[in-house]
Amino acid sequence: MTFPTKDDLIDFVYAEARMLDEGRYTQWLESWMPDGHYWMPLDYKQEDPNLVTSLLYEDNFMLKLRVERLNGARTFSQKPKSRCHHVLQRPFVDEMDHENGRFITNTAMHYVETRLDEQFLLALTATHELTLDQGILKIANKRVDLLNSDAAFGNIQLLP
Amino acid sequence: MSGYMQDQKAIDGLVRSHQVHRDIYIDQDVFRMEMRNLFVNTWVFVGHESQTPNKGDYFTTQIGDQPVIQVRHSDGNIHVLYNRCPHKGTKIAIDRSGNTGKFFRCPYHAWSFKTDGCLLAIPLKKGYRDTGLDQTESAKGMKAVGAVKNYRGFIFARLAAEGVAFDAFFGDSLSSIDNMVDRSPAGRLEVAGPPLRYMHKCNWKMLLENQTDTCHPMVAHESSAGTAVRLWDEMGQKGPTPAAMQIIAPFMSPYEFFEDMGIRTWPNGHGHTGVHNSIHANYSEIPGYMEKMVEAYGEERAKQILGESRHNTVYFPNIMIKGPIQQMRVFIPLAADKTLVESYIYRLVDAPDELLARTAMYNRMINAPTSIVGHDDLEMYERAQEGLHVDGLEWVNVQRLYEEGEDMETEAVVNGTTERQMRNQFHAWLKFMRAPGSTDAQVAAQ
Q1: Is A51 in Cβ contact with B353 (below 8 Å)?
Q2: What is the CATH architecture of A6-43+51-146?
Q3: Which residues of A touch B224 (CB under 8 A)?
Q4: Alpha-carbon span B444 to B307, nearest angstrom
Q5: Among A130, B115, B167, B323, which is least packed by CB within 10 angstroms?
Q6: What is the ipTM of this complex?
Q7: Are the C-beta atoms of B367 and B360 separated by less than 8 Å?
Q8: How many domains does chain B have?
Q9: Are residues B276 and B262 in contact, defined by beta-carbon separation less than 8 angstroms?
Q10: Which residues of B touch A64 (CB under 8 A)?
């Protein structure tokens, strides 16, 4: 069977969530295409990442900065560190286009983040746009829609 | 417990020239008095006119702890009404914005009101015949706030029926709003999308003070701004400068830069950083923008408008604007230890989209609950909110570059690392806390 199969795509999404939960950020950054964006809209069904505010719309440099910062000696909001946990529903594979190397999955998740005595839960839908880079699956773009994206939040410090 | 509600004079003892008592941040009675006096007596920001562009458009928010509706009436004017049915108290609108048509209709008993608040109709009205309903407040309709002013599109309201006039309250500080609006070739701003909403478990005044605290960026934000600078160096500074560098890296500027930036204070608690220079001064030029500005204003005036680099302008009591990038942060007090921060961005009408894109980027990088800059600020506020409970060490110091005999009733331009603006805010705080606010015209007139 041609790589990737539907199972390969689903396994990839699970593996990515596990990387984030285990804090394997170097490996996580390597699973991105260099021009990819991680987008978390602010508005329900938001279409434009540029001319209105989003919670996140980060390129490779910002994502690198974000994860580098987590390990800094003077990263005060991460002393002590936060921990996170993703629970995934089995991803839908919405698009499998081998010819153009374009694969899209849609995954419902519950995300829990904790630090000190605080813990919060976010319900979200992640849309992964995956592609092949020298035969290896990579994230071309990722969109995370929080169910309550328009609610007032305290700090969300790790990556849902 | 603390008794400030019973002994209003005790409030005077909380503010000294160089330090303030921690009860200002943690005491529930002080908070209640802020809601009853300070937020009633002052002019408080409500919304932007572009949030209610058409007749019947409304937007819900709060002034202090009072729920209000900003609504565009049939004559085109914007009214600010308390969000409460005069019948049983039901909130008339609970969505954040919408269009109500020609009138509001309470969903409980169908009392209806014109969009200026006047009572329009009551079902089964004959049941009130000879009951004296017309003598009650309920018959007057939805109550309006004391006074409303639309200043270049920004809607402010004073809950008190009588009190300080708008122009007297803001004075020359309005020049910062002017500069922000003048940056549009059409002289007009429009809100761009919904605001970021960020919950802070701290007192609202900590946020306000931080807006002109120029001694914290290079310390508290070293983890984000410092790491950005280091990463870019390690990458050999190859290729186009990442957008993040323009926005975040200036936070690491040395103390001297912030000293030279300058701070201006105005009477009534208003003030701004960035008199001579600022961290917003060196953003790259956007093609086509200067041409549009010159076309609209002439070269000299256009250069004058864009030559201002005011960093943060605080409008007391609870907003901050960034003129050069068309942003507003609103610090909505929810409790002594709880503040909702809403961060808006505005489009410069007739200016290239790239300007708005940079503004949106700044907002999400700095003001979002997911912001690596915001995280460290909130960490500091929340640590302070908890630390202030230490007994026996009960004063907060605001003494930096304090000068004997400072007169907050006159404008001043001073060294950019002064805490004079914080002292200015507390001077105004005391002034507007002293007068009991009244939202009742008759009481106020007595």
Answers
A1: yes
A2: Roll (3.10)
A3: 65, 69
A4: 44
A5: B167
A6: 0.97
A7: no
A8: 2
A9: yes
A10: 231
